[in-house]
Amino acid sequence: MRLVRHLLAVSFAMTLAISANAGSVDFGGSIFNLTGVGNSAGASSDPGSTTGFVQEDVLKAWFQANLNDNLSFNFQLDGTFNTAPILPFNTTLLFANADLLNLHGSYPLPNGALRLVQFTVGRLMLSDFTTMVMSHEADGVFLDFEFPAVSVNVSAGYTGLVTKGASTIELSKSDLNDYANSGVNFASPRLVELVQASLLSLPGQRISVSAILQQDLRGTPLDLADGSGESLNSAGSTTFDSTLGGQVNTQYFGVGMSGSIVGKVYYDVFTYLETGQELNYQAGSYQNLSFLGLLSGGGVRVLLPNVLSSIIAARAYYASGDPNASTVTEGATQSFSVFTPISRPILDNVFSPQLSNLVVLEASYSLKPLSNLQTSLQADVYLRPTPGAISEPGVPTGTGSYLGSEMDLSVNFNPFSDTGFSLWGGGFLPGSAFGSGAGVQFKAGLDVSLNF
What we know:
Radius of gyration: 23 Å
Number of helices: 2
Number of domains: 1
CATH topology: Porin
Strand content: over 45%
Order of helices and strands: HEEEEEEEHEEEEEEEEEEE
CATH class: Mainly Beta
Distance between the termini: 30 Å
């Protein structure tokens, strides 16, 4: 906790020092409250067997100091109280985190091929162009170069100083152990580098390419928060321990395309090839294993502005699996194996597994009967491409491929520009892949947000 206090003290000192010399200052905040009920949270081997209340409260405060027309300092701090967190991450009931603490610059260049240069230094959000592989806070740098036909950005960041409750990284068994350890305050210590480019010269189309490199810094001098201090499995060790993890390094190379098909019909497609290195226990000892994984996805959206601003959409995702894996975390047993994203996207209200050994088929419809009222209905079918493990409990290996189906309904109402209400609910019907003890899972709640 001493490191947490030092970081907060430095943050406030920087804010005060910069605001004293700023040309203009703006600040505000928001309050978010979620109250609901459900039976899908927890790590029970029989999902859907226990019902409980859901309560989450988030208080955010933000501050922006414009030093000149091109340079600004940004700071956002939030505190979260959560009685029913999403496992295995966010297991902390009460935590604070700095979402933003950075210096941002934007410099137009009207003459020449380079039209705009932007940079951000400090606490920022690192994301790939799909947000399905990486969308996570980090401390680092972001550089963006805008040309008439091409956009290029380069970024790098360290995740080990983000508060654990705000993290969704679960690449190794050590990551999972830290979530369950109340003595650990910070996220998994990883260094992530991204290089992305988008081709903008095709009318109505956008082609994106991306390379993401991730290095596990556990057990190195760069593990600034020292993780949980637990020992790691090492290559050559002959002692098998299913609870301990080793270092997991991954690399991702992606390409995607999006744009208009005709009229108000739009599409997007993408694919990512993952290469990774982790330890695997075989022939009586831990050995280094290199593996490949694949993530692909795409969707179609139809906009009907004259029909109550309706949107009809369909999406699909495929994430490779390993038929012999007993876990998706450090679960590779062969060269083509489980795809493992860096951070974990949320797919649905109730059943939202990691994008590993998974096929998702999704259809949705939304409309706005009033300018401040929107309703949406979404249905998803979940399958697994191999009989190996998925991230969620209650699904034995070797059973069927049909995981189940979910339907979610939400009604969003914004009576004022700074006030919002969302009434939502969802139900998940387990499929043949689940054990016999699994029951129907559900969640429902009311979200209230207020900006000031």
